[in-house]
Design brief:
Layout: E1 2-4, H1 15-19, E2 25-27, E3 32-34, E4 54-56, H2 66-75, H3 91-94
Antiparallel strand pairs: 1-4, 2-3
The structure holds iron/sulfur cluster and FE3-S4 cluster.
FE3-S4 cluster binds next to helix 1.
Length: 106
């Protein structure tokens, strides 16, 4: 499956959700995750993310491996999102900032 990594936190552009043919994106307060049990590896979402926050599970950047389990865990509790919505007004300021994991809201 594909995995959403740290740079989505506080950016949450949601461009990714519209292209997913199996509706496997789940939305939290300031982050999105992919349900690994639903993802069919179609690859369509990866180029849609302006924050480059979507990777194949086998290719997540070094240090981001914890997001594989985090996607699986949070997909079970967060609701599905299928329609694009406005990003947070300060999304651009957070894009690319390291160390956002402690800011993840559940
Ligand atoms: Fe959905 Fe395809 Fe992305 Fe998996 S790879 S989350 S199926 S758009
Ligand atoms: Fe997040 Fe990128 Fe989707 S910032 S909400 S993974 S478009």
């Amino acid at each position: 499956p594909f995995v959403v990594i740290e740079n989505c936190i506080k950016c949450k552009y949601t461009d990714c959700v519209e292209v997913c043919p199996v509706d496997c994106f789940h939305e939290g307060p300031n982050f999105l995750v992919i349900d690994p049990e639903e993802c069919i590896d179609c690859t369509l979402c990866e180029p849609e993310c302006p924050a480059k926050a979507i990777y194949p599970e086998d290719d997540v950047p070094a240090g981001q491996e914890g997001f594989i389990a985090l996607n699986a865990e949070l997909a079970k509790v967060w609701p599905v999102l299928t329609e694009r919505k406005d990003a947070p007004p300060d999304a651009k300021e957070w894009d690319g900032k390291p160390g956002k994991l402690p800011l993840l809201e559940r």
